[in-house]
Amino acid sequence: MKPGLVTPPPPRRGPRWKGIREYSEWIQIALMFPSSIAVGLAIGYGLDQWWKTTPMLTLGMTLVGIVAGFYNFYRAYTQWERRRRP
Q1: In the prediction, which pLDDT does 1 show?
Q2: Total structural domains within the chain
Q3: Below-70 pLDDT ranges, the chain
Q4: Is 46 inside a domain boundary?
């Protein structure tokens, strides 16, 4: 082995890692929804401040964030269901 190179760790497989992997996927799905709403809210608030408008853009972008959150949740859940089935 050449100096300075690092060998990658072995892949984490097996029954011990299956539960951890599934738990991490559910955490990712759970954080996806509020983060989508927060991003929509931040973009709408920033646009309202920039264009000095009423909070209509904040409300509109928050609704877009909610829709995006539900869509991401649905997509992630259907992928998880597809992997779970034999």
Answers
A1: 53
A2: 1
A3: 1-4
A4: yes
